[in-house]
C-alpha cells in the first residue's frame, strides 16, 4: 500500500475515534478525584448512622450528624464545581491537541496530495466529465469546460485522492447514520386514556328542540 495512502487512512481513523478518546480522558479526569470519593464515603457513612439513630432519644448526636452532613454537602458542591472547571480545561486542551495533531496536518495533506492517484478504472464506464472529475478532483468542475484540465490518454482513468476521500467519508457517514437509527431507543406511543368514541360523544351538542307549527 502507498505510504501516503497509509498515512491518510491513519488520519481518517484518528478523526473517527477521537470523540471516543476525548470521552475516555474526560471520564478519567472525573474519576481521578480522590477528595470527591472520600467525601461521598463520609456522607454515606453518616447517612447510615442517621438511619440507626432516633432523633428523640439521641437528639444531640442526631443534630451533630445533620450539621456534619450539611458541611459535607457543601464541600461536595464545591468539589463538583472544581471538577467541572477541570473537565472544561481538559476539553479545551484536547481541542488544541486535535487541531495541532490531526486537523491541520490532515487538511494540509489533503490539499497537497489531492491529485494523488489511488486506483484506476477502465476508461469509458463513466461520462467524460465524471472521468475528468475522478482524475483531477473538484477543480475539474470549474476548469473542465475551459479544456485546461483533460482526461489523460490510455485505457484507464485514475481516481484522485480528493474524490476517493469524498466517497469514503460519504459511505462512512451513511453507515453511521444507519447504525444510529438502528440503535436509537424507540419512543413509546402515548397511551390513550379515554375511548375516542366516548370523547367524541362528549363534544356532540344535542340539537335544540324547535317548536312545531
Total of helices: 7
Distance between the termini: 100 Å
Shape: elongated
Query: What is the chain-wise order of helices and strands?
Result: HHHEHHEHH
Low-confidence stretches: none
- β-strand percent reads 5-15%
- Total domains: 2
Average of pLDDT = 77
Our Rg estimate from Cα atoms comes to 33 Å
Major sheet: order of its strands? 1-2
What does this structure look like?
With 213 residues, the protein is mainly alpha-helical. It folds into two domains: 22-112; 115-183, no CATH class. 69% of the residues lie in helices and 5% in strands. It is built from seven helices and two strands, in the order H-H-H-E-H-H-E-H-H. The chain has helices at residues 3-31, 34-52, 59-112, 128-136, 139-143, 161-183, 196-203, and strands at residues 117-122, 156-160. The protein has a two-stranded antiparallel ribbon. The longest helix is centred in the middle third of the chain and has 54 residues, at 59-112. It is elongated, with a radius of gyration of 33 Å. Residues 1-19 form the signal peptide. It is found in: Endoplasmic reticulum membrane. One of its GO terms (cellular component) is endoplasmic reticulum membrane. Residues 36-93 form a coiled coil.
